[in-house]
Amino acid sequence: MSKNIKVNVEYLTRVEGHGNIVVNVKNGVLEECRLEIIEPPRFFEGMLRGRSIFEAQHITSRICGICACGHTLASIQAAEDALGFSPSEQTIKLRKFLLHMENLDSHILHIYLLVAPDLLGVKSFVPLIETHNAVVRRALRMKKICNDVCDILVGRHVHPISCIVGGFTKLPREKDLDRMLNLLIGLRPDMEATLELAKTLKFPQFNRETEYVGLVNDDGEYPMLSGNLGSTDGLRMDKKEYRKLTNEFVVSHSSAKHTKATRESYAVGALARFNLNYDKLQTKAKEAAKALGMKPIVTNPYLNTVAQLIECVHSLEDSIQILQELKDKGLDYAQEIVVGLNERGNIPVKAGIGFGAVEVPRGILFHEYEIDGKGKIVNANCVIPTGQNCNNIEHDMKALVPQILEKSQEEITLLMEMLVRAYDPCISCSAHFLNVKFVGR
Amino acid sequence: MKQVELRESEYITMPAKILEARMMTTQEKYFKIALESGASLDHDPGQFVMVSLLGIGEAPISISSSPTKRSYFELVVRNVGKVTNALHKMEAGDTLGIRGPFGRGFPVQILEGNDLLFVAGGLGVVPLRSLINFVIDNRRDFGKVHILLGCKKPADLLFADEIKDWEKRLDVNFHCTVDKADPDWKGNIGLITSLIPGVNLNPVRTFAVVVGPPIMYKFVLIEILKKDIPEKQIYVSLERHMKCGIGKCGHCQIAQYYCCKDGPVFSYDQIKGNVEAL
Amino acid sequence: MQQFVTLQKKELNTFISALAQSQKVVAPVARGYNNFSFQEVTSGKEIVLKYIPTILPPKKYFLPAQETVISYNKRENSVNAILEYEKMVIFGVHTCDLAGIQCLNMVFADKPRDINYILRKSKIAIIGLECNDYCDEYASCNVVDNHLPNGGYDLFFTDLGDVFMVHINTMLGDELVGKVPVFKPADEKALKALEALRQKKRAIFKNEVDVKHEDLKPLFDRSFTSKVWEDLDKRCLACGNCTNVCPTCYCFDIIDEPSLDLNTGARYRRWDSCQTEPFAKVAGNENFRKERSQRQRHRYMRKFKYPVDKYSRYFCTGCGRCSRTCMAEIKLKETINALAKEAK
Amino acid sequence: MRKPKVAFFDFACCEGCQLQVANFGEALLDILGLIDVVMFREAMSEKSDEYDIAIVEGSITTSHDIERIKKIRATAKVLIAYGSCATIGGINGMKNNFDLEDIRKYVYKNDAKYFETIPTHPVHQIVKVDYYVHGCPVYQPEFVKVLKAALAGLPYNVPDYSVCVECRFNENVCMYDKGITCLGPVTRAGCNSWCINNGNICYGCRGLLSNPAKDGQMDILKKHDIPLEWVTNKMNMYNKPRELEIDEQKHKG
Ligand SMILES: Cc1cc2nc3c(=O)[nH]c(=O)nc-3n(C[C@H](O)[C@H](O)[C@H](O)COP(=O)(O)OP(=O)(O)OC[C@H]3O[C@@H](n4cnc5c(N)ncnc54)[C@H](O)[C@@H]3O)c2cc1C
Ligand code: SF4
Ligand code: SF4
Ligand code: SF4
């Protein structure tokens, strides 16, 4: 068997940000296989220097419009950690809810608009408007509901407005809670239909032993907003030590830095969380997992999409539960904070370092800030899920290509693209922060 | 919130059809329009209409034809923005909406029997033409008639054919000037103010009617006042931003006057000393 | 029809809740930081009785910030005039705002009449509420004579401690009172208390500026070229807040908005502000009020001079909103005093 | 009538503005009824070099970007700058607060040489822009307005009055009443005072008014005892690249 294959996917589509895939097979031997990230660097990290720690959220939210709420929450966590400020129970609850909405929104977008076209054999959701109109409408409807809930909760989903260091500048009123609850309860039938649809979809078969990394904790809650770092290889450490885990290094072909933990690479994201914390999922989510034939530990990266769907069920149900609790207890509106006053001494400022580790749709996201005595940022670092996954994707590709060499070049290309897309890479995010360690070329 | 349909409203437009449309200069387009109902617009010289294009907006445009023309009316539109640009794309056979006529036109009853001095600069000839043609159509009812016309260059001259006709008439004293001539130009060269001193008139029984761009008024009025025409006998037509045309929206306000309702024609006496008017 | 009735204060809730059963009721509610706003209420408990003028005056119900005036269909070449309205009761309108509504009534009843305004107005019942004392230092209702009720309401409430004295001014007011059996005929004692309050108010409310009521207009007649406007030019941000909150500012823009099919659509009017730069601009880049000083002068003239020439009435109600809302702290009373000082 | 072909392009940005399109819900299908989207990399694999309307997101930050945007301009009949990054430089412009060499070294250390960068430019500083949709992110109702205008071939005028106007319509308690500065008075409206409605201040993401009242603004700061630095600092978050135009005008003048 001597075959030459050259795959060069420029401007990978249906992912957020710019990426290229390069595969080079000569005489049946894989010579080159890599994922290039070519998003223009935006220097967020450099730009943060000298800004007030209270502005970090506003700025870092703009790293990525898709996971803006995730960046917001990670940034706030790091900032509050640096300031030694503990948010109230109510604030934490609302933040968890926000994170769920982001998770739901992002997963729905990914499942329906980015992955489904592959599985249904078309180039994008646009042809589906003709062939699967009801499905497209459902997807858009579900997405809109998440969006509407975010509008009520934080002003908007893309770059949330009211969620800042210290708490919320505007708390939902009683009728707002009702509106959100109604919207989410109304989402249930569409979620059921989505599960039914998922049962009919066929995913490529490919397994590779992988180390899965995510937040873990000892209470009964599926950890998203807080916890320690853990892995399926048994790793466990405090979030402060995240650099030991991520071991970032730069590779020449990519403007996103790569990471590795105990093995040569690791994976983060819905599948990692599913594998690590399956037990803590909401009952309905577990039922969904069963129906979809998912049981930890799943090592087929293509099934990340299915793990996302299971998380959707979890996020929806957990959100409804949180809303119910908030409604029963009632919100304390005295906690509504005035933006800007924090910067003027409401929250005392001291020099320090703070860490944020939050499970965002694509995996664990780290923010770290060092501030001076005036609350100005002197150093900033972010490690983005896709940056962590990049290395793992390359290892997956290297394992996958020899298994599918028999296929046509188009099929190979598609399978590679689908693999990358399964990770739901957010390349615009990952290209923006490159710091830490650089391993020379 | 309830929404109901109203049978009457000041904002309702009358459907109208363009009978004829042609470019007059590079910037101005001429339209001959008739109401679809067949009714006459029945306007006074100097009044204007709101031209409505659905989905685009409305613009106040002076009626250029004399009310003696009953079955149609004429507009001349300069292309300056959204509505006027869209109007320029329209041709004969197209329909548009009309509201009006609005405003107070020239006081024809007062002018009757008197000598008249018309001074028009640039686009000012458009509204003034409705009065000039009305006077010409009823020539016997008026005294001496002087027409002074000015524009930037010969190519800007509007209604050139008609003007030739005015020029030829024995019962009209006509002069025209351009700021900048071209080789074919045989007439006067210079600002319109230069024509005024040469007019031989009797200030006691002369009424001056001046229409032109804002900067023109100041200088023309100085010259006219030098002729000892009483302030009450000088009329101007002012242009202001307008939205409703019925004296509510506030855009066209000059002191206590709404230009759309109390104007656009004012006597000098009415507005002199008003720092915002001239 | 009884002229005066009383309502036990604790019964206000019953009255409002009962009214809210059958129609929309709006009343002042708190927005924090000593700001208030007219909002829909379903019970009397939400209402703040002691409030300073709301952020937006009740004009927002009479002349909505944005309203559709026509809808159209291009393909069918059809144009329909539209009225948007809502039947409602406004509770708690201060005397200055009653005056504001009266001013708007004059403008929109002036020919050609504005049908939209007039019809909408006829669906709104107005319940006034007396101010027993000054709202704050920005108010100047005395100089324009709006500190005492001068009509313009269906019912008028005066807080007399345990009871409200309620003046029934119209048949509609009588109907409202008749709907809920909580009102009693006013007794002698209550009527005396009302008279005493009015007396007391005459002592509290004093001319707020250094100019007498009748001298305001002549002052503005003389003030066209005042230096005071130059000073405002430097300070004013031209943000338009002062006109938007003014109960007697009614200028608007007319805008077409096609629907997504690009065939149908609506033409609506929307509040506009003479303080913004493009307001008086015409083609050829001529702007008749280019400078902020000219625009500020225009605003003041539109309160103290032009309407007096036209309607023989000051169009400032003394509510103080423009001063309260101005970030640059341009204050109406100060401006008037500065003009007066200069004129001396 | 043939449906106009629309292509989306992204430069340095967070792609949140493109996401705003996906957030329309089912109304998106109505929009897609009017136009033929031939390229939308975030959600579509189809590619095309033929389009009538180019919707450009993101700022110009490399010399490669300059070439690319020029090509897009040459192909498109209508170019819409979409989102603050494209219309005013936006958050990317914060980079211009620093020395470029310095920031490159800070972020990429020894590898800085691989990452070429130029000062952040909004699109109109490089090529002609026909329509602007300001905002970080864009306000969907305004985008719909602009799209309709572009399809009808009509101009869209971005409001040249301040955010305060809309803020008053919404009856928000003014931030200055709370003792806080807000860029609303100098920022052009059109977002329905989105941030203030939700308890935050205006950061000026839609760009400054054409004639902001500088003196007045200073006055206010003095009155509220707010250091000027605080405001310039906020201004420099979104509006820094504006200086490049002012510099240019100085050169020309
Ligand atoms: C009483 C009166 C009679 C007029 N007669 C004629 C005429 O016979 N022929 C003619 O070509 N023009 C006439 N105009 C001017 C014409 O109304 C404006 O040029 C037109 O409204 C501009 O609209 P637009 O949508 O094309 O421009 P826009 O795109 O809206 O704006 C372009 C410029 O015009 C200004 N403008 C906008 N709306 C108006 C308005 N309603 N009034 C004045 N300026 C405005 C804007 O401030 C801007 O500077 C008249 C104006 C008035 C007030
Ligand atoms: S001018 Fe000022 S004080 Fe007078 S009515 Fe208007 S907002 Fe109130
Ligand atoms: S909060 Fe900001 S936008 Fe609103 S009125 Fe005050 S300054 Fe203007
Ligand atoms: S309020 Fe200011 S920062 Fe917020 S969206 Fe509007 S212009 Fe942008």
| Helicity range of chain D | 25-40%
Largest interface, counted by CB within 8 Å of the partner chain's CB: A-D, 68 and 68 residues
How is the biggest beta sheet of chain A arranged? 4 strands, mixed
Low-confidence stretches of chain D: none
Secondary structure tally, helices of chain A: 14
SSE order of chain D, as H and E? EHHEEHEHHEHHHHHH
Mean pLDDT across all residues of chain A, rounded? 85
Name every ligand kind in the structure. flavin-adenine dinucleotide, iron/sulfur cluster
Number of helices of chain D: 11
On the 0 to 100 scale, the average pLDDT of chain D is 85
Instruction: Sketch the major β-sheet of chain D.
Output: 5 strands, parallel
Shape of chain D: globular
Task: Kindly state the number of beta strands of chain A.
Answer: 12
The portion of residues assigned to helices of chain A is: 40-55%
Placed side by side, the strands forming the largest sheet of chain A appear as 8-7-6-9
Structural class of chain A: alpha+beta
The succession of helices and strands of chain A, N to C, reads EEEHHHHHHEEHEEEHEHHHEEEHHH
What is the radius of gyration of chain A computed over CA atoms, rounded to a whole number of angstroms?
A: 21 Å
Number of strands of chain D: 5
The rounded distance between the terminal residues' Cα atoms of chain A is: 33 Å
In oligomeric terms, what are we looking at? heterotetramer
Explain what you see.
The complex is a heterotetramer of chains A (441), B (278), C (344) and D (253). By secondary structure, chain A is of the alpha+beta class. Chain A has 14 helices and twelve strands. In chain A, β4 and β5 (167-168) form a beta hairpin. The model of chain A is unreliable at 428-441 (pLDDT under 50). Chain B has 278 residues and is α/β, with parallel strands linked by helices. Chain B has helices at residues 82-88, 108-111, 125-137, 160-168, 214-226, 268-271; strands at residues 2-6, 14-23, 28-35, 48-53, 57-62, 73-78, 95-102, 115-121, 145-151, 173-178, 188-189, 206-211, 234-237, 253-254, 257-258, 265-267. Chain B has a seven-stranded mixed beta sheet, with helices on both faces. Chain C is an alpha+beta fold. The model of chain C has no long low-confidence stretch (mean pLDDT 91). The longest helix of chain C is centred in the middle third of the chain and has 17 residues, at 188-204. Chain C has an eight-stranded mixed beta sheet, with helices on both faces. Chain C has a four-stranded antiparallel beta sheet with strand order 5-4-12-11, with helices on one face. Chain C has a two-stranded antiparallel ribbon with strand order 13-14. Chain C has helices at residues 12-22, 59-62, 95-109, 115-122, 171-179, 188-204, 216-221, 228-235, 241-245, 292-304, 306-311, 321-325, 332-343, and strands spanning 4-8, 24-32, 35-41, 66-73, 78-85, 88-93, 124-129, 155-159, 163-168, 183-185, 252-258, 264-271, 281-282, 286-287. In chain C, β2 and β3 (35-41) form a beta hairpin. Chain D is α/β, with parallel strands linked by helices. Helix content of chain D is 39%, strand content 9%. Chain D has a five-stranded parallel beta sheet. The termini of chain D are far apart. Chains in contact: A-D, B-C, B-D, C-D. At the A-D interface, α1, α4, α5 and α6 of A face α1, α2, α5 and α8 of D. Residues 163-164, 167, 172, 174-176, 182, 184-185, 193, 196, 202 of chain D line the site of one iron/sulfur cluster.
